[in-house]
Write a structure and sequence with these properties.
251 residues; mainly alpha; 8 helices; 0% strand
């Protein structure tokens, strides 16, 4: 929801800047409307065009890397959950309660994702308690032979890895693009759009061009911001790996 409001505000800034510049230009003194003044304005706008293009390229690359990294971590997280369940099965029926806690955790994550239409790896404190229960159960086991001892040790290490991966995903969910960079980019784009209306003819074609340009640029920035937070919005990491892991756990 926050990204939508930001995208709407960006559109208002860009379209408003160009339209206001178009409307007030005729009120400028004559010496402010000379060709030399217009040439300087165009040169300054071209400078910001180049800088904005560079920043947009960096933002797209950063958002792409963040999305791909989190997507890979979700697949690894699902795989670790399956491997942990397999190790607990190898130990014996004494770990059935631990396996049930893992299944309940994954089920909760999948259900929360379906209800909120968001992929949520860390929905709330209850999910953390379910994983902590698994650790308590593992700590309370008394292996009867070397095979069970090895399975207990392996399961403990795998659980530690699952918890670590969970917190990595939690830390990555906030995004990597700093808000001041977005604000600076919007300020540059606002100046560029304001230059569009400088000495432009006041007709419907120019007005529509300004509005359409703003309507195309603002969603592009919105999509970059949305891709930088892959657990929400229209562009998000697929919950399919966790759904497949749940299917494996319930077999």
């Amino acid at each position: 929801m926050g990204e939508v409001l930001v995208g709407t505000a960006i559109f208002a800034c860009l379209a408003g800047a160009s339209l206001v510049s178009l409307m007030v230009h005729e009120r400028f003194p004559a010496h402010h409307r000379q060709d030399d003044t217009s040439a300087v304005v165009r040169l300054a706008a071209n400078l910001f065009v180049v800088m904005s293009s560079l920043v947009l390229g960096l933002m797209i690359n950063s958002a792409k890397n963040t999305f791909e990294a989190i997507d890979g971590n979700v697949h690894a997280f699902a795989t670790d959950l399956i491997l942990l369940d397999r190790t607990l099965r190898q130990y014996g029926p004494e770990t059935d309660s631990a396996r049930q806690s893992i299944t309940a955790y994954v089920q909760r994550v999948v259900d929360t994702s379906a209800a909120d239409n968001d992929t949520t790896v860390v929905p709330n404190r209850l999910s953390e308690l379910l994983l902590n229960q698994v650790g308590d159960i593992l700590a309370g086991l008394t292996p009867a032979d070397a095979k069970q001892t090895a399975a207990q040790q392996a399961a403990t290490q795998q659980l530690r890895k699952v918890i670590e991966q969970r917190w990595i995903l939690a830390e990555q969910s906030e995004g990597a693009i700093p808000a001041p960079l977005i604000a600076l980019l919007v300020a540059w784009l606002t100046l560029i759009f304001a230059s569009f209306g400088f000495r432009a003819p006041r007709n419907a074609t120019v007005v529509c061009t300004c509005l359409i340009s703003g309507a195309l640029v603002a969603p592009a920035i919105y999509l970059i911001m949305d891709m930088d937070t892959p657990f929400s919005g229209p562009i998000q990491v697929s919950p399919a790996p966790l759904q497949r892991a749940l299917a494996e756990l319930t077999q």
